[in-house]
């Protein structure tokens, strides 16, 4: 046993040295590094060094594909199917207030496209879908492959987290990346996201790559590189994919924080227009319908999506799905029973003018300190904590106008300072940034 551990550590250290020296890593070497870490044969601190070296030195396409395979491991892909229909998935690179999965998945499912989604937890300052959904009492997000199939067959949609069974390598490294500043690496992100899609045997994929101050890839050129790489990587694994580059220079919608975002997503499914969330949610759902059925026109897809909202079908789909994954009847009967934070405090404008910036990282930090995220690995989350924004870039405000309401436990007052610091007010009008910047397919770029 001791010898096996020593050999695994030695192999990992050699791999770090080779990557640091500019070598390409062999497929078998990458596979061994991930398998050893997943099996507990190498310690966190050595794996953190390997991830940091990869984040600095990068990986080419072959290495990234090998890392994707290594993350999936030897477990065969879970054949999630509804006979005669293509199962699709969507994934965002993450951002502040990004609740698009909670809108797009039920919309696509309500339009008859099966959605099997493997989501992640929060990374850095950005919230994670799994953390958001955990604020729903009773909801289970650690489904076995068999349960994934059962829920999908019953409700047309299923959402689960990475588990030791599905994409175990991603599961093992993801939490470590979150606390070692190794999140914003193009190959690490691409392998992490695509491995989850291959593990659930997705037959179509929509990627929402964020750019702007609150995105992992703040630079639009890097965001486009990541989008193209993921579309190509997915194609190598036989998954047709489309990618959107969307704005994250301010939080998406008004709500930031777990239960607060669930409430906002449910309101959008009931027809409320929320800036950013409604438009992007409908676009992602449209592309999901089109990767499932490539001949479907934009008009037909949009009509179906509009009808799913107007008829209440998308909202009902969310509740039926939540119930199938164990949500307590109290939530299904009255979604407003979601947890709430103990305190609410208002942040107000200190002068009149136009909102020129709502810094998403500062809002993300405010939400983290309010209790909505983790500052250290495995710490607990206050599901009711977060921020409700009242102003977005371009909003006209007077001195004293409420800008944000901070929902918190009162244990870290810096949440209020971060929230106040997020806003910049200009004496002149400021235009709102474009939400959708580019749309890619495997072989071409579409007009947004
Ligand atoms: N989402 C993931 O699943 N993985 C990443 O690395 C980034 C976003």
Offer a concise description of the structure.
By secondary structure, the chain is an alpha+beta fold. The chain has 17 helices and 14 strands.
Structure description:
With 448 residues, the protein is of the alpha+beta class. It is 46% helix and 15% strand. It is built from 17 helices and 14 strands. The chain has helices at 2-20, 27-38, 44-57, 61-72, 100-110, 129-133, 145-155, 168-178, 186-199, 220-236, 258-269, 277-292, 298-310, 313-324, 329-333, 360-372, 414-421, and strands at 88-92, 115-119, 157-161, 204-211, 241-247, 255-256, 343-348, 353-358, 386-389, 396-397, 402-408, 423-426, 436-441, 445-446. Strands 1-4-5-13-14 form a five-stranded mixed beta sheet, with helices on both faces. The chain has a four-stranded antiparallel beta sheet with strand order 6-9-11-7, with helices on both faces. Strands 10-8-12 form a three-stranded antiparallel beta sheet. Strand 4 (204-211), helix 10 and strand 5 (241-247) form a beta-alpha-beta unit. The longest helix is centred in the first third of the chain and has 19 residues, at 2-20. The chain is globular, with a radius of gyration of 21 Å. The relative contact order is 0.13. Uracil binds at residues 93-94, 120, 123, 188-189, 192-193. Residues 93-94, 120, 123, 188-189, 192-193 line the site of uracil (URA).
Stretches where pLDDT is under 50 for at least 5 consecutive residues are: none
In DSSP terms (H or I, runs of 4 or more residues), the helix count works out at 17
The residue fraction in helices comes out at 40-55%
Bound molecules: uracil
Number of extended strands: 14
Task: Specify the biggest β-sheet.
Answer: 5 strands, mixed
Radius of gyration: 21 Å
Could you report the average pLDDT, rounded to the nearest whole number? 93
Q: What's the end-to-end separation, in Å?
A: 56 Å
Structural class: alpha+beta
Largest beta sheet: what is the strand line-up? 1-4-5-13-14
Choose one word for the global shape. Answer: globular
Strand content: 15-25%
